[in-house]
Design brief:
The chain is an alpha+beta fold. The protein is built from 16 helices and 17 strands. Helix 7 packs across helix 8. The C terminus is likely disordered.
């Protein structure tokens, strides 16, 4: 009986041990589940990253969550600045900011800070000595280090579970990813704003050009109506002049007063004296604001003196038109020419003239006309013409002007039975640079690339941008493939120098396909297609410079 009691007592003790073990295992299971749930929630942030303008809310959430994992008396986050230094971005509570700043300075000096950056795990410091116990943990992603978490621990930290440090690592790893996502969203918003601004500027420019075009059309229509009306009035006045000399002088005075209100200068040539009478406005238009009007009027009444202020390239053309009117071959003429002031500045003048009185044989006795300053219109026309034929980004000739220049070069080479060359240039791996640094940096790189190519070719050559990272070079009058390859070599050498983008050094190589006229084609289309194919062969074979054999039979 005593044996049975002893055996029962032993079984009861074993049963209690099993129950205690079972309770402990259930607690461990519950704890593990809580840890897993905490680890999962640590990876998500309540803040909408794509709507933030600064990382403040993210940093506040990081510090708040870290203090729920470990009993930090104070915690701070340091972020990497543009110059790669670390700056304190937040400290909770703020009163410990100076204390943490001193701790970080000492850890930088003893290189513990650098060690923590490399380990990407929590580093405890201050276990012995006067400093409070503190923890350092890097905020790092796969791509780069985003910052450093620094926290001062309280005395009760030793009573925490072992998994607390692991949970902190999970939190800070997710936090680094959140900071990286915030930066990406912010950069994307900035790029979108820049793009929207550019589109708005382009639309505004288009609208202004359209409004100015309509304004010019209205001005031309109004001026045309005014001139037509003035011409009719002039005919009536001339008919009246033929009756008597006194009526003629009176009519000339009335005509001058009538036309001076049009905004154009008026002039009358007298066939008897050979002199030209200018209105004050006409003298001002011809001579400019910097000239002495009285002296200008005196000089301009002489045809020889008048001719001296006209640009030398325009004198012969204007003289021919005037001569036809003076001879009676045509009743009127219109000419655009440049005048050069004493300050060397050029202005464009529109001169119109019409025979207003003839003798019995039909020879002109008087010619009247107007002067208009069209300098502003000419500048606008030149600006519009340049935009239509040149690349907006690099200022180089675009595809439209490229085809025109190449057509002219091939026609000249055909007449002279000479040779010409066409380079098709493509930058290798430009898309990777564009993807990494953004389109604005890519645009800067394209402009620098265009400038380097221009600096390597001859003055007679033409460098064009067809689009993207594709450039062409038109070389008229080359001796043969050897000279073309020498120029291409200079371009390749220029690209061995690195490009600087945002403080980074970028090396880019080129692939150049060369087509020689007439060996590789007689037309623009043939030569361009063969140069393009040669470029792709150069890229594929790693030759960098490639010719095609005559008539595109094989690469050389």
């Amino acid at each position: 009986m005593s044996f049975s009691k002893g055996r029962m007592g032993s079984l009861e003790r074993r049963l209690r041990m099993l129950e205690e073990t079972n309770d402990f295992l259930w607690k461990e299971k519950s704890t593990a589940e809580d840890i897993l749930e905490s680890a999962i929630t640590l990876g998500s942030f309540d803040t909408s990253l794509n709507r933030l303008d600064d990382p403040g809310p993210i940093l506040e959430e990081i510090v708040a969550r870290a203090r729920t994992i470990l009993p930090f008396k104070a915690a701070a986050v340091y972020l990497v600045s543009e110059d790669s230094s670390f700056a304190q971005a937040i400290c909770v509570p703020p009163g410990h900011a100076a204390e943490i700043e001193e701790i970080v300075s000492r850890r930088i000096e003893d290189r513990t800070f650098a060690w923590a950056l490399k380990r990407r795990k929590p580093i405890l410091s201050g276990l012995s000595g006067p400093e409070p116990l503190h923890l350092l943990h890097a905020l790092s992603t796969i791509s780069r280090t985003r910052g450093m978490f620094v926290g001062i621990l309280g005395e009760e930290w030793q009573q925490l579970p072992e998994y607390s440090l692991a949970l902190l690592s999970v939190l800070l790893s997710a936090s680094a990813g959140a900071l990286e996502s915030f930066e990406l969203y912010r950069n994307l918003r900035s790029l979108n704003r820049d793009l929207a601004d550019r589109m708005s500027q382009l639309e505004e420019s288009r609208r202004e050009l359209e409004e100015y075009r309509k304004f010019l059309e209205q001005q031309v229509e109004r001026r045309t109506m005014e001139l037509s009306r003035a011409n009719e009035e002039m005919k009536m006045e001339i008919a009246e002049r033929m009756r008597t000399e006194e009526d003629l002088r009176s009519s000339e005075e009335m005509l001058r007063l009538a036309v001076e209100g049009m905004g154009d200068g008026v002039w009358i040539w007298n066939g008897t004296t050979g002199k030209t009478d200018l209105s004050p406005l006409s003298a001002e238009i011809l001579c400019g604001d910097d000239e002495d009007p009285a002296s200008c009027i005196l000089e301009s009444t002489s045809g020889e003196a008048w001719g001296r202020i006209i640009h030398e390239d325009d004198r012969e053309r204007l003289s021919r038109k005037k001569a036809r009117c003076l001879s009676g071959e045509v009743p009127a003429y219109s000419a655009e020419y440049r005048v050069v002031g004493k300050d060397g500045k050029e202005r464009w003048i529109l001169e119109r003239g019409r025979v207003v009185r003839k003798d019995r044989e039909g020879r002109p006795l008087a010619i009247a006309g107007t002067h208009s300053d069209i300098t502003g219109r000419k500048k606008l026309e030149d600006h519009i013409r340049f935009q239509a034929t040149h690349d907006f980004l690099t200022g180089l000739p675009n595809r439209f002007l490229f085809e025109d220049r190449l057509t002219q070069v091939l026609a000249r080479a055909k007449r002279q039975k000479g040779k010409a060359a066409l380079f098709f240039v493509d930058m290798d791996d430009f898309k990777k640079v564009n993807d990494r640094y953004g389109h604005l940096a890519g645009d800067t790189l394209l402009k620098e690339a265009g400038s380097r190519i221009v600096a390597c070719v001859r003055e007679m050559d033409t460098v064009c941008r067809l689009g993207g990272d594709e450039f062409t070079v038109i070389l008229p009058a080359v001796a043969g493939p050897g000279e073309a390859e020498s120029i291409a070599g200079r371009i390749m050498d220029a690209f061995r120098e690195p490009f600087l983008l945002g403080g980074d050094t970028i090396f880019l190589s080129l692939s150049v396909g060369i087509g020689i006229y007439p060996d590789h084609g007689n037309t623009v289309e043939q030569l361009l297609a063969n140069a393009d194919e040669a470029m792709y062969r150069a890229k594929g074979q790693g030759k960098r410079i490639c010719f095609l054999s005559p008539r595109n039979t094989s690469s050389s």
